[in-house]
Structure formats: C-alpha cells, structure tokens
Write a structure and sequence with these properties.
The chain is mostly helical. The protein has 5 helices and 2 strands. The longest helix is centred in the last third of the chain and has 12 residues.
Length: 123
C-alpha cells in the first residue's frame, strides 16, 4: 500500500510504501469499511480469502438485496481485549506477551478468579 504524505522539511510529497499481512477476516473487514480507500494505491500480492469467498464477493448484489455489515464475535476474547483490560488495571501499555500471559498478569493484580475476571471484563 502506498500513500503520499507531505514532508515539511523537504517541502514536497514523499511516497510511503508498506507491506501488510492480513488474515481473511481482516481483509474482508478492511474492504467493507473502506480502509483501502485511505491509500493512494494498493497492490494485492496474495488474496488471503478462499476461492469460494472471492467468487462470492465478486458477485453483484441483487436489486433490493442489501449486504449485511460485519459484526464481531463477542463471545471470543482476543489479545486486544486482554491488552485493553491490562491498560485499565495497570494504567500503562501491556507488555508484548501472549493472551494467556496477559490474563495471568491481570489475575495477579486483581487477585480474581476466572469467573470474577469474566464478570468485570463484560461490565
């Protein structure tokens, strides 16, 4: 993905390029949210979706048939959820560890059991 940004030192636009690895759900979410439109150009090196998903996405919508917005799965906790909870508890950014380690650190700080931790996370 490339984007042109103004460089105040050089007083000209500089092209910034970056390669991003996306999982199929991330790719579909970014495509639906219009995130790719924020960049000046994109080159897809490999489409992460399966062939069935690609053919389904390329089909035009039938008249009167609206596409449903993507809804996150709220029952599955993620690393990002644990990082946000860690920040609430410790009032600092989470260390670069896995989900299970973060949950253990949060439990240690609060002295909570698994059930109590789930209850406070949903509040």
């Amino acid at each position: 993905m490339t984007r042109k940004e103004n460089d105040p030192v050089k007083k000209e636009y500089v092209t910034i390029e970056k390669t991003v690895k996306l999982y199929p759900l991330q790719y579909e979410r970014m495509e639906k949210n219009g995130t790719f439109a924020e960049y000046d150009s994109q080159t897809i090196l490999h489409d992460p979706r399966t062939k069935a998903a690609v053919s389904e996405a390329s089909k035009p919508a039938q008249p009167g048939q609206a596409k449903e917005p993507m809804t996150p799965i709220s029952t599955l906790p993620s690393l990002q959820d644990a990082q946000m909870r860690y920040k609430q508890v410790y009032e600092q950014d989470a260390p670069a560890v896995g989900y299970d380690e973060l949950v253990e650190l949060i439990k240690e700080k609060n002295g909570l059991t698994d059930e109590e931790l789930e209850e406070t996370a949903t509040v």
